[in-house]
Design a protein that fits this description.
alpha/beta; 2 domains; 10 helices; Spore Coat Polysaccharide Biosynthesis Protein SpsA, Chain A; eight-stranded mixed beta sheet; 8 strands; 328 residues
Length: 328
Amino acid sequence: MEKERNIPVLYLVVPCYNEEEVIERSADVLGGKMRRLMEEGKIAPGSKVMFVNDGSKDNTLYLLHRIAEQDRLYSVVSLAGNYGHQSAILAGMMTARNYADAVVTVDADLQQDIEALDKFLACYMAGSEVVYGVRNDRHTDGFFKKSTATLYYGLMHLLGSRVITNHADYRLMSKKALDALSEYEETNLFLRGLIPTMGFASDVVYFDVKEREAGHSKYTFSKMMTLALDGITSMSVRPLRMISALGFIVFLFSIGMGIYCLADWASGSTVPGYTTTLIVSLLLGGVTLLALGIMGEYIGKIYMETKHRPRYIIDTVVWKEDQESGPH
């Protein structure tokens, strides 16, 4: 039996990329919630809001530095370049795990209901090492995004991934879970699928998604597609097995066509064969190109993994803390 947990030091990890329109509002809302949680005795003094600047090209970093210099509740980790959303989250979690008992990752646009933190903490105190934030519905999404998201989660489950439907990256992880995550060395990160495979005690908190308060989403269609491909190729080898199955089916089809053609020849039938030849050629050509494309994705992932390049590089850190704790 695990002993009763103490009130945790909580760090909010907030990845940011070109969020100058909303970042000051985000700091006010997140900081206000953290202060209320400390006043209510749900989190311990020393808890922080940690912004991770993912190579922003606007004034986001300047605003973050100003916020952190004025209030020690906030800290800033700035990456040397734009490494992507997943790497920015990982950089924040790996930095925060040395000083926090629990870490919650949340987006800077304030669409994820920050009031759900109370439920996250209740699950943590009850023994959960990981708590997933799951949106109640997708009413804020357009028809295209809603439809593609539904298809994507269905495909991921079909391929054997343990990704949680309608869970983005709003989650709590304990120090124990973060220490275990640090042992994973994948370059191609897909945290939504990776973390559920760790096996720790977990729980789910449902929340409503709000409209974005300012600015516009920086998660473009191409970035969503890249994340989707990373999710599929990082968490499952079933597409390769499906290629083998498809190849076997085409092989059987080819044998059947061969027998059919021999039977026609033996009976003396005159068959022009143009249409049949064209259809078979297109079918085989399409299957071959599809197979090569899928295999290429996996080979590309292997290529990147073998390089062992760092997943992120931290450029600067702004951190105000007591002398006995925190980075210098």
